[in-house]
């Protein structure tokens, strides 16, 4: 069972990725900051130019929206935590058309008592429970993801989780966006990149995986030489092939979280 999350700014996601996923009938979870589609808000150069109407046009049958915090900025004032977490959730839920928004996908931002960017990052549920910000996240959302290290970190490139009917509190994601497309392919083989290895491990273990991606790389932003459209398309074809062969189910994170059976 594999879930795909796409973080952050809507423009490259909406202009490039949406059609790639729709053509393959791949569901996905959009980790969206409520502020980033407001007129005049700019977190990064590629975060401008689209609107709530564009977000509303996302195909709701395939796309789940999750809260990624209001601003994607570090929050140091405890009084600002509520607007950043609960306020963002309320805005995402109320933006027409009203949507079910169940989940929290952590941004790379630090909050008072809850480090989601600066190592050591909050990972397990105890880290969330030990701060006001973390408790707000846990209390207000049906599920929350954690911040597990990326493959170049010591934990290694394969992050999977048991899917045996027990809940997995704040699971971390397997990142796909790495230099030279290493998350999406190895030597041109989409089965050999970190993502492909993770999915293969999930199948072998009877586990699930949650894959994470930033589309800013598709427009040359957010890091040097990460991946290109061909590498991404190849990996999506790989996932689609596994799905069509019955080897994996590709689901939204809310479905991944609520699954009661092992799904391969
Ligand atoms: Zn983000």
Short précis:
Helix content is 31%, strand content 14%.
Overall geometry comes to globular
Ligands, deduplicated: zinc ion
Order of helices and strands: EHEHEHEEEHHEEEHEHEH
Number of strands: 11
Strand residue percentage: 5-15%
The CATH homologous superfamily name equals Glycoside hydrolase/deacetylase
Instruction: Give me the Rg, rounded.
Output: 17 Å
Organism: Nostocoides vanveenii
Protein name: NodB homology domain-containing protein
Domain NodB homology: 1-115
Please tag this protein with its features.
alpha/beta; globular; seven-stranded mixed beta sheet; TIM Barrel; two-stranded parallel ribbon; 264 residues; binds zinc ion
Can you walk me through this structure?
- The chain is an alpha/beta fold and 264 residues long.
- The protein has a single domain, classed as Glycoside hydrolase/deacetylase (TIM Barrel), CATH 3.20.20.370.
- The protein has eight helices and eleven strands.
- The chain has helices spanning 10-23, 52-56, 81-94, 125-129, 132-140, 194-205, 229-244, 253-258, and strands at residues 2-7, 28-32, 63-67, 103-104, 110-111, 114-115, 143-144, 161-162, 174-175, 207-214, 250-251.
- Strands 1, 2, 3, 8, 9, 10 and 11 form a seven-stranded mixed beta sheet that branches. Strands 4-7 form a two-stranded parallel sheet. The protein has a two-stranded antiparallel ribbon with strand order 5-6.
- Strand 2, helix 2 (52-56) and strand 3 (63-67) form a beta-alpha-beta unit.
- Helix 3 (81-94) runs parallel beside helix 5.
- The longest helix has 16 residues, at 229-244.
- The model has no long low-confidence stretch (mean pLDDT 90).
- Zinc ion binds at residues 7-8, 68, 72, 107-108.
